[in-house]
Fold ABC3 transporter permease C-terminal domain-containing protein.
Amino acid sequence: MSLSLTIARRELRGGIRGFWVMLLCLMLGVAAIASVGLVRSAIERALSDQGAVLLGGDAQYEFTYRRAKPDELQWITDHATAVSEVIDFRSMLATGTDPADRALTQVKAVDGAYPLTGKLQLDPPVTPHALKGEGGVPGIFLDPILADRLGLKPGDKVQLGGQDFVMKARIVREPDSTGAGMGLGPHSIVALSAIEATPLLAPGSLFETEYRVTLPPQTDLAAMKAQAEAHFEGAGMRWSDRRRAAPGAERFVQRLGSFLVLVGLAGLAVGGVGISATVAAWIERKAPTIATLRALGATGRTIRAAFLIQLASLGAIGILAGLGLGAGLVLGASGLIERALPLPVAITLDPGPLGEAALYGALVAALFALWPLSRMSRMRAATLYRDTGAGRRLPGWPTLTLTVVLLAVIVGVSAWFSGLWTLTLASLGGIAFALLILTLAAWVIRRAARAGQHLARGRPVLRAALAAIGGPRSEARSVILSLGLGLSVLAAVGQVDSGLRGAIDRDLPKVAPAYFVIDIQPDQIQPFKDLLAGMPDVTKVESVPMLRGVITKINGEDARKTHGEHWVLRGDRGVTYADTPREKLTAGEWWPKDYNGPPLASFSAKEAQEIGLKLGDDITVNILGRDITAKVTSFRDVDFATGGIGFVLTLDPAALRGAPHTWLATIYAPPQAEAQVMRDLAERFPNITAIRVRDAIARVTEALSAIARATSLAAGVTLLTGFVVLIGAAAAGERERAWEAAMLKTLGATRGAILASFALRSALMGAAAGLVAILFGGLAGWAVVDLVMGAEFRFAPVPALLIVAGGVIATLLAGLVFALRPLAARPAGVLRAPE
């Protein structure tokens, strides 16, 4: 080892010339992963440290469809130092009867103790007591988006649920907004006393009541949770506490952050191509040195150790530079990041994400440097002196085994850090598949170029370009791998984004309803139907009774513990009852009409399969504090993609007889009739809430677009890394281009013809990379839009053409820049130079 260290130290005295591609690749890949990890860590730390503020207290008791009974509220009060009651629901805010003067809002009705923790920031900075209003008219605080949409300013009057309110301030920041998740409309805040006697809280209306509490110091939250759940067993209470104040936001941040880290790994994989090429070129330059060491008796192990030490030193430089760049970018943009997030976040240098990025960099560098390094150490001195090219054969079994081990470690480490095995395997599998396709494409293109040379007789420019692509020192593999993977990720993002938008534009007018209408009281449903029946533009109206319930047990066992964290088992779900099935049965039998026996249930087939539910299983759902245990007798084909009414769980009518409930309706009408429908409903039924489907989808589309932009940014780093590798490949081939240009000049070729040949070579390789990216992007888009989202996928040609154009332009720029010096060289000087 001392001899290897001595050799490595002396070799490193020559500097890092020729290693800038490797260093830049490592730096960019590590920087991308480090920056994403630092932001993710800061958000997760804020969610954890500010749990009480985000939740609105140390703990929260939540009830659906009802408020706590007096004895329940007394128990909550007895076990807390302070209690605040908050009721959350959706409604319509109006300044007139015109649809343009109405907007959907997520209302938070609060008592005088709100907020228990944190501070509500308002503009102008009034106190929450301003909700009492003036002159008998209660006050309301509005989200700036809502105020701007309706053109409201402090002092203006609005209507909520048929009651007048006066706007007192704009909401700057709600301390507990992050824990509430994403609503369908902007927020508004009113006093609880102002809406208690209104139809907004009538029996069966859809609302959630939250009792936020502060607890005595040193309270054991786990023990308190167990005590509360035991006391409220069967009452439909859901417990939350400051340990996980915003589980939805936490899951979203974890999954999106982990996915972006995996996209960053794609950048490192592209960088690995550059690392491999750099190491191979370095070994080729060092062939005389290696041969001399072998001739002097150095073993393969000694030589390998010496070169490993050099690579480790250079890799450490690249990784440290990447950590510095990533941390510098995040800290430099910390102000922008903190202002853009909906919760207070402190960006700091967290060693965890930095260590994760460094580990990824080290593993990828070792993986891609291993093969050229192992092949070098096995060659004999005579082989290296004679430059026979034998060093390009496959390495031995120890190296192949170590390669498999490194790949397994990368997959395991990625899954460990993300905590999401399925996402990790899918993402890394996609990267591996793309690399495999790109490698095969490079091989096919080289073979096709060699086979097509005879067809180019009489076209010297084309023949020279094809000969260069198909030759033994072709850049095709490096170019297509490095550029193609970055373009593939961008193509996938573009096709998914275009596919979802296209599916919405095509299918919404034909399939989806114009409005979802909720909070229709039982005595309003017939007048509601009669009103719509008199509107000639309304093509169809569907209505069903609706309640909300929480699936708590399956076969007597806790549902989430025995059947996983499926979305159906998280939180409350819509529940209905029916005499006859609305959807096609896929298994089992429906109950008879006028059935009056033990409760029976029908479940959505797809969701039942996902959670492992079988016919005959008992399912317990808590509705309005009452546990109803029903036997599953059938499964239904529920298609949520149509935008129409669809319930996971349907019970027989007798099971819910007498339970307070409201009705849900969907209204089908052409876009030009939507305004009149809204106007007539607002005049007749001011308490109901009409959710315009186009607006709801627009909010979801906006969220998907934000994710697409973040993914595109991460993919941009991958593309930038690929461009670095591309430039490195062009620079490494400069000597071959000089020799080629000299030969062609000697044979009478003009500079223009030689330059055209170089340009055509680059354009063909760039086009090949772009075409493979289009293939991969199209497959990814089809898989996400068709298989995952259940929508019709149509290929988007514009993003595809831009991808091909980008590939051609990138390779042209890289190729032509490094063709200028070979073209300027004099043939005699090049041809007389020693090889």
